[in-house]
């Protein structure tokens, strides 16, 4: 493991990592357990990933915890996920403070149960001055819903003469997304072998490097994040330019 750490260039760590934490259900099933058992066992992976990212100097870690589409799961599972959210946030708050972690949330948060909204608001407020890493939970999050919401808000401003149509640009759209205070995603990781985006951060991932691993989320540990970052560091991010331009810093 130390060896892997030494292969990471600490000057070139992705500033924003987004993760699709997938495979909890399959992990539980493989152990002959109910799906919810997998969700309950996701916490260690979340903790270890956040700690590792923070140690490496990653500025922003954004975790997909519940999608707009996940509301269509059986009520029992949805309820279990919501109550897990509440207990986890409450339990982890002292740790977030100790580790200087700033908590943030993106998504259609008003659709969450009232108690979850309350705990979330409390944790966000309590950690707002923390500076080591921003840990964002995507909750009731869907990229399309986010974009629709942004368009509505921009349109309202156009109607009220607060924004001129001609002035609408990338930056204005960015500022109306739930992620307005986050930088673009540098590295997107999805666990469990699925190779799709599932309505996650479509706009924000325009130039992200994508990394897929077969590891199921409850098994995700430090070394797996090291692997993803080493892979990321071996890629050339060209942003539309040529390799030669990148080499000569043009
Ligand atoms: C990811 O694991 C967690 C959530 C979507 C809440 P899944 O619950 O999707 O697990 P699989 O994909 O069914 O194994
Ligand atoms: C995406 O996982 C959402 C989260 C990880 C929270 P899903 O398991 O819901 O995605 P699909 O349905 O397999 O695309
Ligand atoms: Mg899944």
Automatic annotation (TrEMBL):
Residues annotated to bind substrate: 23-27, 35, 39, 67-69, 71, 73, 190, 196-198
BP GO annotations: polyprenol biosynthetic process
UniProt keyword Metal-binding present: yes
GO molecular function: ditrans,polycis-polyprenyl diphosphate synthase [(2E,6E)-farnesyl diphosphate specific] activity; magnesium ion binding
InterPro entries: UPP_synth-like, UPP_synth-like_CS, UPP_synth-like_sf
Active-site residues (renumbered): 22, 70 (proton acceptor)
Coiled-coil ranges (or none): none
Keyword annotations of the record: Magnesium, Metal-binding, Transferase
One Pfam family of this chain: Prenyltransf
Free-text remark on how the cofactor is bound: Binds 2 magnesium ions per subunit.
Cofactor needs: Mg(2+)
Residues noted as binding Mg(2+) in the record, renumbered to the chain: 22, 209
EC number: 2.5.1.-
Primary role: Catalyzes the condensation of isopentenyl diphosphate (IPP) with allylic pyrophosphates generating different type of terpenoids.
Family: Belongs to the UPP synthase family.
Assembly: Homodimer.
Protein name (database record): Isoprenyl transferase
Organism: Tenacibaculum lutimaris
Source organism phylogeny: Bacteria, Pseudomonadati, Bacteroidota, Flavobacteriia, Flavobacteriales
């Amino acid at each position: 493991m130390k060896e892997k750490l030494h292969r990471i260039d600490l000057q070139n760590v992705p500033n924003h990592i987004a993760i699709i934490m997938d495979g909890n259900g399959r992990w539980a099933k493989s152990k002959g357990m109910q799906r919810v058992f997998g969700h309950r066992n996701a916490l260690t992976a979340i903790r270890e990933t956040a700690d590792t990212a923070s140690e490496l100097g990653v500025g922003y870690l954004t975790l997909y915890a519940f999608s707009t589409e996940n509301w269509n799961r059986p009520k029992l599972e949805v309820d279990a996920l919501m109550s897990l959210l509440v207990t986890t946030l409450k339990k982890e708050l002292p740790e977030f403070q100790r580790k200087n972690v700033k908590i943030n949330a993106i998504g259609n948060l008003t659709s969450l149960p009232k108690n979850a909204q309350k705990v979330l608001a409390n944790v966000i407020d309590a950690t707002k001055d923390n500076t080591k890493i921003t840990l964002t939970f995507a909750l009731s999050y869907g990229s399309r819903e986010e974009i629709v919401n942004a368009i509505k808000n921009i349109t309202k401003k156009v109607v009220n003469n607060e924004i001129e149509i001609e002035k609408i640009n990338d930056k204005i759209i960015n500022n109306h997304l739930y992620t307005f205070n986050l930088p673009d995603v540098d590295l997107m990781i999805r666990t469990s072998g699925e190779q799709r985006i599932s309505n996650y951060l479509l706009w924000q991932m325009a130039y992200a490097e994508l990394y897929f691993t077969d590891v199921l989320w409850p098994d995700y540990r430090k070394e797996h994040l090291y692997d993803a970052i080493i892979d990321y560091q071996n890629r050339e991010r060209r942003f539309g330019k040529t390799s030669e331009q990148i080499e000569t810093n043009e």
